[in-house]
Design goal:
It is built from one helix and no strands. It has 122 residues and is mainly α. The longest helix has 95 residues. The N and C termini lie far apart (100 Å).
Length: 122
């Protein structure tokens, strides 16, 4: 009788340990599944960042060209501003029909040196 009780006690312990083992195996499987999902998500984010970096590098290539175009426009505007007073003096004289004294040439506009070309713009 004593042996039957020990056997029943041991069988109950075996069932309990077996149940714990099943629960642990399920927890391990769930953790592995979460790890796999997290790994795929991290890889997708990494790929997105790599794509964004590549796009930024490609966009950066055109910045010097755009800068040079703006500098060319600025230079053209400086030249236009510098020649405008000379052009209007002649028109003033022809509109009035009399000789108008010329303005003194004290104001000089210095033009900036054109910037070096960084790339060939298309």
């Amino acid at each position: 009788m004593e042996l039957d009780r020990v056997i029943q006690s041991l069988q109950a312990q075996i069932k309990s340990v077996t149940k714990q083992n099943v629960n642990l195996q399920m927890a391990i499987a769930e953790a592995e599944q979460h790890e796999e999902v997290a790994h795929k998500d991290a890889n997708a984010k990494l790929q997105d960042l790599k794509n964004a970096l590549q796009q930024a590098k490609e966009d950066l290539v055109w910045v010097p060209c755009e800068y040079q175009e703006l500098m060319d426009v600025k230079l053209a505007l400086y030249i236009e501003i510098a020649t405008y007073p000379t052009l209007t003096e002649g028109e003033e004289c022809s509109l009035v029909g009399v000789l108008v004294p010329r303005r003194p040439r004290g104001l000089m506009v210095s033009l900036p040196e054109p910037a070096a070309r960084y790339c060939v713009c298309m």
